[in-house]
Amino acid sequence: xxAGSHHLAxxxxxxxxxxxxxxxxxxxxxxxxxxxxxxERAPGFIARSGYQGVPGPRSWxxxxxxxxxxQHSGGAGVSQLSLWRDLExxxxxxxxxxxxDALKHARHWNVVQEWPPMVLFWVPAGQRPEWKxxxxxxxxxxxxxxGPQCFTFKExxxxxxxxxxxxxxxxxxxxxxxxxxxxxxLDAVLKLPV
Length: 194
Hints:
By secondary structure, the protein is α+β, with helices and mostly antiparallel strands. Helix content is 38%, strand content 15%. It has six helices and four strands; from the N terminus they run βαββααβααα. The chain has a four-stranded antiparallel sheet, sandwiched between helices. Helix 1 packs antiparallel against helix 6. The termini are far apart.
């Protein structure tokens, strides 16, 4: 079993400090389409789920949220589900360029999380996980920790279900390519209000 026979799924989840239309999370709303555009330009990006009733890619199943949303009141749940070629391409995208800028400001838009912000898991190439799969894996990560079914960058597993290591030199190489490919997107993001 190799990474080519599998794709890396990532599910992110957070809760905004206020409703999604509020001024408090305007910076997030302005950056979101630019983040999606940057991901689509990133080496190793395969596809992402859209949201029901929103123009763009089709939704991978019904949108559901982890139990943490019901434990907080007032804010809106925000999530993302996508597929990547491997750990290195996702890590390079996550921590450089447009997405890194969003991470830098996330504390302004989201409540302090008592759960991991994301979970990673492998799926057979050509298979699309559904929102419920991401939710299930995030809750499994919280309840049982990292393992072959759900893991993080800090404790990664390969598609062969064994612990693995991230190739940091490949991440650096891909990160440089990401910044170059993002071109004007990063310039536009840096001018946006937080």
